[in-house]
Specification:
about 290 residues; alpha+beta; 5-stranded antiparallel β-sheet
Length: about 290
């Protein structure tokens, strides 16, 4: 009787093969996790850059138009009457002024801009500034504010001048001019928004000093605006706790001096820093 030899693997061989397979799988998983983390970091960086570009475009487009006039012979005191602030953000604006600012308790600034146009310029929401109809453009005053709300969203809010209808808006009053539709979101994840005003105190059409706030005198001396804002990622993407810090032109910091980020904070952050010249300020008439 011939003996039969059975082919196969022994228990030891199977165990060795299993261990080797697990080691290979662990290496592959480590590579996949690393690639996923790298992709998340790149995606977060791209999102931050997109938000920065959008914020830069909107802010520069709005602020650079401050003081623009379709009717060049119009006097500032007539064109820009004093107005209250229906949003309760401390952004009242004085007679003849086309820019004002304020700060909130969260450390963010807000800026209010006014200018005149007749169908050739848009406000920060893309609405054509025109007080007429489709057949005949009529000059109208644009009045808007840029600010960051409690949810870290940069928003644009529109005001309405008395007796000056704007396309798509209803009339307001001097006491409550803020558009009742509410301010519209522009950019998310704005952790800090700071504004400094370049003042021309000697009439040479260049900024001699920068101020963090304005009064009835200095609001007429503004010739440039420096904007700094910190945009953050939407999720925790850094491999370790955040050690970033930012110092603003007014001396404030993020985090505040003596403070640190929370222990579990791994968000990425970047600062946008730009200075915008108010070209229309040279056309001011007292």
């Amino acid at each position: 009787m011939n003996s039969q030899q059975q082919d196969g693997f022994s228990l030891v061989e199977l165990m060795v093969a299993l261990v080797v397979s697990l080691l290979l799988l662990a290496g592959i998983l480590q590579i996949l996790l690393g690639n996923r983390q790298s992709f998340s970091n790149q995606q977060a960086s791209a999102d931050i850059e997109d938000n920065q570009r959008l914020a830069s475009f909107v802010i520069e487009n709005v602020v650079a138009h401050a003081g623009y006039r379709d009717q060049l012979r119009s006097r500032n005191d007539t064109l820009f009457p004093p107005r209250g602030d229906g949003s309760s953000r401390g952004l009242s604006i004085t007679k003849g002024a086309f820019i004002s600012g304020a700060s909130d308790s969260n450390g963010n600034d807000a800026i209010r801009i006014r200018f005149q146009a007749a169908g050739t310029v848009h406000d920060c929401l893309g609405t054509t500034i025109d007080g007429g109809d489709d057949t005949k453009p009529v000059p109208a005053v644009a009045d808007m504010a840029l600010f960051v709300d409690d949810e870290n969203t940069l928003r644009c809010g529109l005001y309405v001048e008395n007796n000056t209808p704007q396309s798509g808006l209803s009339l307001g009053t001097a006491e409550t001019p803020f558009d009742k539709r509410g301010a519209q979101p522009l950019v998310d994840n704005v952790e800090r928004f700071k504004v400094r005003y370049g003042l021309d105190t000697d009439g040479d059409l260049s900024a001699d000093t920068y101020a963090s706030s304005l009064n009835d005198t200095t609001t007429r001396q503004v010739i440039s605006v420096r904007v700094q804002l910190v945009v953050t990622s939407d999720s925790q993407v850094l491999p370790s706790e955040s050690t970033q810090s930012f110092t603003f032109a007014d001396g404030s910091t993020l985090p505040a001096k003596g403070k640190t980020w929370p222990k579990d904070d791994r968000k990425a952050r970047r600062m946008l820093d730009q200075t915008i010249a108010l070209r229309n300020a040279v056309l001011q008439q007292p």
